[in-house]
Design goal:
Elements: E1 2-6, E2 10-14, E3 17-21, H1 23-33, E4 37-45, H2 48-59, E5 67-70, E6 76-82, E7 88-93, H3 105-111, E8 118-122, H4 129-139, E9 146-150, H5 160-169, E10 172-176, H6 177-186, H7 194-205, E11 209-213, E12 219-223, E13 226-230, H8 243-256, H9 261-276, H10 287-291
Parallel strand pairs: 1-4, 1-8, 2-6, 4-5, 8-9, 9-10, 10-11
Antiparallel strand pairs: 2-3, 6-7, 11-12, 12-13
Helix pairs in contact: 1-8, 8-9
Length: about 290
């Protein structure tokens, strides 16, 4: 598949270590590892961290063609605090270079030829008016791509009107169970269960598919009207940074291959667990390792 992923790239500072991250970058790296052609759109500063982003992207087999270097802001940075279970709490530092991405008309034409199969976008990136405008140029291009909205709510980095607007633009949505509860709250709803949530919002927004991750408990998924639940895999978590982004990549991988929903859910759980068992958002992993989990 050809995938266009637009969003943030930054460094996750965990303790005294820095790991390349950002939901959109993590998703891109894992989708590329699954064998897809990914064009990642973002921006970095003309600084040491920006230089290292571009170097690390090349190591991950990701093109840097659409990651522009800008003078105005430094490369993105987030401080990550982990609780005892390895679950992260993020502190985002602004302004950051990814708040001011740029694409020329030539860049846009190149991104859309040949036409992509998927366009990926999230919430945080759209808090910047410039980034939101660029995202909408892509998703309103009528290129025929399926639109994946990975909700990824971060503290002080979303508003209810923005989330609703992005939900209305999407065809496929991925979120976690905490985010499902928050969406119910912000929209004044009270769905009775995760299945009720999936079916209610799918009807309202005409989604093709939705997946809700549940950490070590696995996930639930509604694909073309078929609802499934899949248990997770027990691993010793180093941290869960990037696990949800890896799940999203595996999710659309299975959707595009038209696997049965239960198979998609199990595969995505395997990939997410494997990533959670290793530090950082873009650790090395193989399909053989994912399939070998018990």
């Amino acid at each position: 598949m050809k995938i266009v992923s637009i969003g943030e790239v930054l460094w996750d500072v965990i303790g005294n270590r820095e790991y390349l991250g950002g939901a959109a970058l993590n998703f891109s790296a894992h989708a590329s590892r699954l064998g897809h052609h990914v064009s990642f759109v973002s921006a970095v500063g003309k600084d040491e961290r920006g230089r290292r982003v571009l170097e690390r992207m090349k190591e991950l087999n990701l093109s840097t063609r659409f990651v522009h270097q800008i003078d105005a802001y430094p490369t993105g940075l987030v401080t990550v605090e982990l609780n005892a279970a390895g679950v992260p709490k993020f502190t985002l530092h602004h302004p950051a270079a990814y708040d001011a991405p740029e694409l020329t008309e030539g860049d846009l034409a190149e991104l859309l030829s040949p036409k992509p199969d998927w366009i990926y976008f999230g919430t945080l990136f759209q808090m910047s008016p410039q980034a939101k405008q660029l995202t909408y140029r892509l998703i309103d291009s009528h290129c025929g791509a399926r639109l994946l909205f990975d909700v990824n709510l971060r503290k002080d980095s979303y508003t209810p009107p923005l989330v609703r607007e992005l939900m209305a633009r999407a065809q496929v949505v991925k979120l976690n169970d905490d985010e499902a509860a928050e969406i119910d709250k912000m929209l004044g709803r009270s769905t009775r269960s995760l299945e009720d949530f999936c079916r209610t919002y799918t009807r309202e927004f005409s989604w093709q598919s939705i997946c809700i991750t549940r950490g070590e408990k696995g996930c639930v998924m509604l694909v073309n009207g078929e609802y499934v639940e899949a248990l997770g895999y027990a691993v010793t978590a180093q941290d869960t940074v990037g696990a949800g982004d890896a799940f999203a990549a595996a999710f659309i991988h299975g959707l595009s291959l038209q696997w049965p929903p239960q198979e998609i859910a199990d595969f995505a759980n395997r990939v997410a667990a494997l990533v959670a068992s290793r530090p950082g958002g873009t650790p090395h992993w193989t399909l053989e390792e994912a399939r070998g989990l018990r």
